[in-house]
Amino acid sequence: MKYAMLAGVLLVAAACQTPTPKQTQEVPAAKDQHTLSNADSIRMQHLSLDVAVNFEQHQISGQAVWTIENPSKLPVLKLDTYGLTIDSVTVDGKKVPHTLDPTLPHLGNRLNIPVEAASRKVAIWYKTGSKATALQWLEPSQTLGRKHPFLYTQSESIYARTWIPCPDGPGIRFTYDACVTVPKGLMALMSAENTQQRSDSGIYHFKMEQPVPAYLMALAAGDIAFRAIDQRTGVYAEPAMLEKAHYELGEVGKMVSTAESLYGPYRWGRYDVLILPPGFPLGGMENPRLTFSTPTIIAGDRSLVSLIAHELAHSWSGNLVTNATWEDFWLNEGFTVYFERRIMEAMMGADYADMLWELGYQDLENEVKSLGKDSKDTHLKLDLKDRDPDDGLTSIAYEKGAHFLRLIEETAGRAKLDTFLRHYFDGHAFQTMSTEQFLQYLDANLIQGDTTLARKINIKAWVYGPGIPANCPRVPQKRFEKVDAERNRFLQGTAATQLATQGWTSHEWLHFLRKMPQPLTVAQMEQLDKAFHFTQTGNSEVADRWFIMSVAADYTPAYGSMEQFLSTVGRRKFLTPLYTEMMKTPKGQEMAKRIYGKYKQNYHPLAQETLDKLIK
Ligand code: BES
Ligand code: ZN
User: 236: CA distance to ligand 2 center in Å?
Assistant: First the structure.
C-alpha cells in the first residue's frame, strides 16, 4: 500500500512568531474513485500540449506529450479519456500499440499505453469528441460582439479528460506548457502565463510552472481584450464588456493584498479575471492565474464581487492545498467560503460579512431540507462510490464546511485559527489533503489535547454526521433585523413606498425577498414592483429570486423580462431553482418547456444535463 507523507517540509514564514507545527503520522493515501489512471504510481512530471482549435468542426486536436518517470517499472501507463479519438501513441519516438477501454458511466474510457522502466516521453495524437462536456462552443450570435465565435473549457470536476488525455484526479499534479492555434484575430488564454496581447498568427504559447491537477486546466478563445487593474491584476472580456468589467473589478488588486495579509503570499504570479459570455454555467471557476467568471456579477455597483473573493481564495484552499478526492470536496469549498468571508469582512466590515454568513446559513438550511436531514449526503465527508462527483456539488461542502471553520474560530479564538490556517497553507503548498489527514493535522496543531475544546467543537458530528449540528454558529444580524422589520411592516399593510429601504445593498434586497411568504398575491407583487422595479433589476441574484416569486404568484408582468433573462443566462445556480418552480404547475410546465426548448442551445452542456432531467 502506498502512503502519502502528510506534512513533508513545513515552511514557516519568517514573520510568524509561533512554534513550528507538529509533523503528524502518515495517513493512508485516499483512494480516488473517479480516475481510471495509475498515475499515482507513475510520476507525471510535465505536459506539453500542442493543439489547434477548430470552430467549424467543434473540435480540439493535436498532441499531448507527457514526460514521465516510472520507478516502479509498471508495464502500462493508464490515462483518463472520455470520448477522445486516439490517432496514435509513441513512447520515446517509437510507435506503440495502445488500447482504449469501453466507456464506463461517469468515468469514460481508460487509455492503456505500454511503457518500460526507462520510458520518458509519451506522445498522444488525439481529437476531442462531439460530446466533450468540458467544452462550450458559442456561435457569434451567442456573444456580445456577435462577430466572432467563442470557446471555453470547464474541467472541474472530471471533465479535463474530455479534452486532454490525462491523469484526471485532483491528487495528481503536473506542470505544463502549451502551444494553441486559434483562428487569426481571436485571442487565446489559459490557466497559465498569458501574453495579454493578440497574436497575428493565431498561435499562442503558454507556460505553467507551478504544478496543478488536471481539473485546473483551462482554455478560452474568442474576441477578448485585456485591461490592467494594477501591476499584478487585470481583467479580460469581450471588448463591449471591458469597461464595465474593469469598473466592477476595480478592487481586485486590494482584494489580493487583503487575502495575503490573512493567509500568506499569493504564489501564482498574476491574478486576472476573464469575464465569459452569459452562457457560463457557473458563477466562477478558480482556474489558476485566471479566474473564469460569469458576467452576471457585473451589476454596475460592485455588489457581487464576493464571488471574485471566493475564486481568489481558492488560490490557497483548493489550488495550493487540494482535496485529495472529490469525497473531500469540502476541504476545497468550505475553506474557500470561510476565507472569502474573511476577505469581505476585512474590506467591507463585519456587518457586511455577516449578511453573507446569514444568506449562506439559509442556503445550508434549504439544502439540508431538500437532501433530508439524515441523508449521508449532508456529511462533510462524502461517499461518492459509483456516483457522479457532481452529486457532491451541494451547499453542504460550501456552507456546512464554512460554518465548521467558523465554529472552530469562535471556540478556539480567531488568532489561534488564523495561525493554524496560515501554517496549514504554507506547510502543504502544492500538495493534496484528505479529510482524515486534515483531521489529524487539526488534532496535532490546534486541538492539542484540549479535551474541553474538542468536546465543544464535536468534530465527528460535523464531518461524519448528518444535518446541521446543534452547535452551528449563527452570526448577529444587525442589518437583516432592519430588513425583517420592514418586510413585516409591508406584510401588515404599510405601503411599499413607505418602507425604509435607503442604502440597502443587493444582500438586503435578497433577504427581503427570500423571507416573503410564497406565493404573494398579485396585488402585493404589483405593489412591490411599482415601488422597487424588481422586474427591471440589473442585479442577477435579486432578479432570479424575483422571477421565482413571480412564477409562484403567477405575476405575468414579469414574464417578459424573465424570458429575456432565461434566453441568455446559463448559470446553473439561477436556472435550476427557477425552472424547478415553473415545473410545479401545469401552466408553469408548459412555460418551462417552451422557454427551455427555445434557448437550450445557449446553455452549457453541463447545465443542459441538469435541466434535461428536470424538464420532461
Ligand atoms: N470550484 C467551484 C466551481 C465548481 C465546483 C465547478 C465543482 C465544478 C465542480 C467554484 O469555485 C465555485 O464554487 N463557484 C460558485 C460561486 C461561489 C461564489 C460559491 C458558483 O459557481 O456558483
Ligand atoms: Zn469554490
Answer: 20
